[in-house]
Amino acid sequence: METQRIRVYQDLMGANDEWAQKTRTLLREKNLVLLNIIGSAGCGKTTLLEKTVQSLKDKVRFAVLEGDIETTRDAERLAPLGIPVSQLLTSGACHLEAKLVHYALSDLPLDKLDVVLVENVGNLVCPAEFDIGEDAKVAFLSVTEGEDKPLKYPLLFREAKALVLSKIDLLPYLPFSLQACLEYVHQVNANLPIFQVSSLHNTGLKEWFDWICLLRE
Amino acid sequence: METQRIRVYQDLMGANDEWAQKTRTLLREKNLVLLNIIGSAGCGKTTLLEKTVQSLKDKVRFAVLEGDIETTRDAERLAPLGIPVSQLLTSGACHLEAKLVHYALSDLPLDKLDVVLVENVGNLVCPAEFDIGEDAKVAFLSVTEGEDKPLKYPLLFREAKALVLSKIDLLPYLPFSLQACLEYVHQVNANLPIFQVSSLHNTGLKEWFDWICLLRE
């Protein structure tokens, strides 16, 4: 019983990794960058993606794939920006898998794009475990979540190529030690670039935008 | 291949439900109440549990089981309160399963307890899918997470017997519609009791404490 359970799990992950590899091949063929955006529900992922597309869409040709368990609310928020947006519904699963991303990616006008932003299901944990063929995972952490999260959920912070520390306008009202948070992040991932951002107050966005623009080089 | 995959999943869930049933039997034998506390990482679960135990421990004999992926930080926060506290580490899994809860519960001094508070792994999604033998799931939603979460992650809100809407002291600084949030919650679960709470400012705690005290009756 135990042996069978492990074998099936490996089959599933093996299939996921094969789809992720197909996506990588497709991205290289089309000279595209794909970011896997991961963070808790309500940490500000969609809002920063809206701001990013609004500000950079004359320089960078974006598409967005919105991962959710139910509803098309997030895709509806981004569609008015005039870029290709698709909603990926996971039917209950708490993370995106590579096959669904690959299908949705293949339907995009890839020759007319530079960067594909994939917003994963709102969850700090499971999405970090599934390769979707991305060039980089971007971790999001809202300061409202507490400074200890990099220690409690280290996988995402270890795997990420950038961290967006969001909602920093709320720092005056929170028992949150920014210094401790930065130390914890660097304990887990010593060289992780950290963007301290408030989308609501337009704080710290330029550094994040510059990082996005540099991805294409 | 497809058939085999489904069979194994059912076996796993079947085993989980058997352990949950053993826990229910044990709880009835010992006249105990067990709450399964579920919400995103950093939504204020541990802080409200600290306040709850501090305020009620002369009336209610509590124990706490702290579910986390890594670290014993949350158990260390609660241990100074002088009640039985155990840390349940899931080794990577994003939710508690019934077997681990049953083992930890069995090691508690059950004849000297009234209420066992189980804080699940910080995650709005997967923990709602796993029965751990609880009398009630309690959903936590921080107002920093946005008012649309009951629609986007309905399972937890549908299954819960109470909702703690936390961090309401931050409402003046957030683009959060309380009215819309309450409407969305009631679309999913018409009669769900909602406690609007700020642990930091000691707001709304009395109604929550009263609900906890009523559980024993």
Describe the structure.
- The structure is a homodimer of 217-residue chains.
- Chain A starts with a helix and ends with a helix.
- The first copy, chain A, is globular.
- The first copy, chain A, has helices spanning 2-30, 45-56, 73-78, 98-106, 149-152, 154-159, 178-188, 205-214; strands spanning 33-38, 62-68, 85-89, 115-119, 136-142, 162-166, 194-196.
- In chain A, α1 packs parallel to α4.
- Chain A has 217 residues and is an alpha/beta fold.
- In chain A, β6, α7 (178-188) and β7 (194-196) form a beta-alpha-beta unit.
- Chain A has a 7-stranded parallel β-sheet, with helices on both faces.
- The longest helix of chain A has 29 residues, at 2-30.
- Chain A contains 8 helices and 7 strands.
- Chain A has one domain (2-214): Rossmann fold (3-Layer(aba) Sandwich), CATH 3.40.50.300.
Q: Number of domains in the coordinates of chain A?
A: 1
Largest sheet strand order of chain A? 3-2-4-1-5-6-7
The CATH superfamily label of chain A reads P-loop containing nucleotide triphosphate hydrolases
Structural class of chain A: alpha/beta
Number of helices of chain A: 8
Mean pLDDT of chain A: 92
Which CATH architecture of chain A would you pick? 3-Layer(aba) Sandwich
Low-confidence stretches of chain A: 1-10
> How many E strands of chain A?
7
The helix fraction of chain A, in percent, is 40-55%
**What oligomerization state is this entry in?**
homodimer
How much β-strand is present in the residues of chain A? Answer: 15-25%
* Biggest interface found: A-B, 42 and 42 residues
